[in-house]
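Each field is listed here:
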Amino acid sequence: MGLLDRFRPAKIEAQAAPQLMTDSFGFYMPTVLTPVGRDEAVTVPAVARCRNLIACTIGGLPLHLYKKSTGEELGSPIWLDQPSAHQPRSVTIAWTVDSLLFYGVAYWRVTEVYFDDGRPARFEWIAPSRVTFTTQPNSNYIIEYMIDGERAPMSGLGSLITFQSQDDGVLQRGARVLRSAIDLEKAMRVATSTPMPSGVIKNTGADLPPAEVQGILAAWKSAREQRSTAYLTSTLDYQPTSFSPKDMMFVDAVQATCTQIARMMNVPAYYISADQNNSMTYSNVQDERKQFLALSLAPYINAIQDRLSMDDVTARGNIVKFDVDSAFLRVDPMERLNVIEKMLSLGLITIDQAMEMEDLTPNGNTDVTSVQ
């Protein structure tokens, strides 16, 4: 059997939870509201900041395989270190969180499978905008997925692994806030880019036909864009009606919108400079990280590690977990050394394990078994 034969399509059990219900969970969305796409939403700086805080932070966390009954760390399969053959693990995880955050669902396509048990060996992240589906008649249960209009198998090579978030995603539940933020950005852009103040042209003479009025307005706008002065007849008078950015309360509106976006994306407002009354100190930064992890990151971390721990991906009895403690909640070096010294004195760990905890090379211990 050659190397390529190892990754030939193999029949495996149907995925435990590939289907989704297409209905939302009761969120009312008026039809008159213009939908907001992801690409448009991230043009708002506060949205981009919240997205990067959540997605990029989780993307940087390593994944490990553990024995569920004992908590023993096992050797990681290849796909756990690098799910996609074409991009680093951090990139794949970050865009998976991005999909969960904005759409409420994320997709991985199986690109390689193991010959012995048919479980996935490699994946690739698929943008939710590329995925459509077919539902059962008289129900909203998905029975078929299409990628770019082509049918995807429901199991095995080419099938989709679906990650399901715990809400509908901010593009749906936060459509009003996102639309308001985008409109505010547009209003600020118009106010800063318009070379002439807003106003009205008052006609003190005879009424003009609509066509001639439109012509005068177009000529006035063109003249003011090309030169600093313009000409009006004796019967026409220009009356500015513009307000200064302070009068229009742009600053207050931006601050209020940023606060709403932080609430919508479940990120502390001071993380995006939306709360001017909060002051961080070194003494409480660790507690703030714990709170950020528990309230903002945990829903997405759980969605990913729970899905990857299901039987169609990971062997029964094993679980996949993010290494949050060493990568995100790493404490002060002296505090870590005190804990390690105590564990050594109690015989809970060996010298090699202590060195590994500090990312030091164990003394000649190279017997590391990799799980296929």
Q: What stands out?
A: The chain has 13 helices and eleven strands.
